[in-house]
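Internal tracking record. Fields below are filled automatically when a chain is submitted to the structure queue. Please do not edit lines marked as system-generated. If the sequence contains nonstandard residues, flag them in the REMARKS field before resubmitting.
Queue: standard
Priority: normal
Entity type: single polypeptide chain
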Amino acid sequence: MRVLCAAFSREEVTAALRSSINQVRVRVLSGQQRELPDFVSDEFFSDIKNAVELGRANSLRRVINATGIVIHTNLGRAPLAKEAVEAMTAIAGSNSNLEFDLESARRGSRYDHVEALVCELTGAEGAVVVNNCAAAIFLCLSVFARGREVIASRGELIEIGGSFRMPDVIEQSGATLVEVGTTNKTRISDYADAITPETSVLLKSHTSNYKIVGFSSAPSRAELVSLGHEHDLTVVEDLGSGVLVDLAHIGLPDEPIVANVLRQGVDLVTFSGDKLLGGPQAGIIAGRRDAIDQLKRHPLLRTMRIDKLSLAALEATLRLYPPYADPFTRVPVLRRLATSIAELHARAQNVVVQCRDIEGLRTDVVESVAYAGGGGLPQQDLQSVAVALKWEERSTQKLADWLRQAPIPVIGRLEADSLLLDMRTIEDEDIAQIIEALKRN
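SYSTEM-GENERATED OUTPUT FOLLOWS
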């Protein structure tokens, strides 16, 4: 242990030893372990060394997502394009013109860096960006409906991960929710009958993480816009997972495109930056110029403003979206959604070949089902390919634990009696780290 104390510190080694001995004590007293470990063995030394190194490691770490869920909220949602990472690095390591106008040498606005890009890609008159989509909808309702009524369909009172519920957001914004229709059927007449002098906003929410099927109906967006404008009301639509390009050619036709929504006359549209858009966490609001200007003037905007690193990553991501930039190859989320089955099979075979010399490990290429995740594209399966792992010396659960505890953790999914590594959510460059995690002593 003197070697470890010299390499690290006496305090760190002592803490690791105490923790390890306490774990042994608990297992012995509970009957899970009968014999004491060899406290002078190389194996025990290695365990203590690993414990100290783990204690020094950052809590927030890179992992390899092999779950088959492309936008995995628990695993950080959208992986950024290399251009976005480079933009963040450039801004993080120096000062920047975040709120400084280089032409006039006067104070500028951080929102100017992406507004023109958002407008170009969506057809909006104006845009503003905040730190997430929940903040975006909260700001819109605080500005346009505080002290007044918001009409929303019962079938669209969504809840997303983390118990975020639309009725709660409406209440916290200072507005009064007026529910119309039923869970499965809402008509435009339900909205019309609910309008009073206190009504300010007609709210539509895209049910991006669930579907109501069967005996169901909802008014069209055009009907809602017509009714809202007839009564001088603001029509707000929360898309949740915003899509800037048509996904139909890769077999995913059901997600509304932001530009199409705005083209139908919706006043304000809110959507996320880190879901199907494939950028950093952000909430984007696009729509009428006068409405956007009102949002920019509101004091709440400062409490939810986007930080400089997210702003840099968002700008770089948006610049990958014009057709000439080929977003389906350069934005990781879109690339993973669009990867062909043939490419996935080739990736799986590469993994199998590199695993052949790992003693006791069995690998099989199997069909799989992947998902977009992140609250987007519900009930739309993505055909995929996975490598099924089994290890003679370990249960499937222990194999999953083993990979999760690697220096670069590998997160797969348990299915039947195998651990599946889905090829749709890993990159070719991840394979070397996966093999290293399996081979480590």
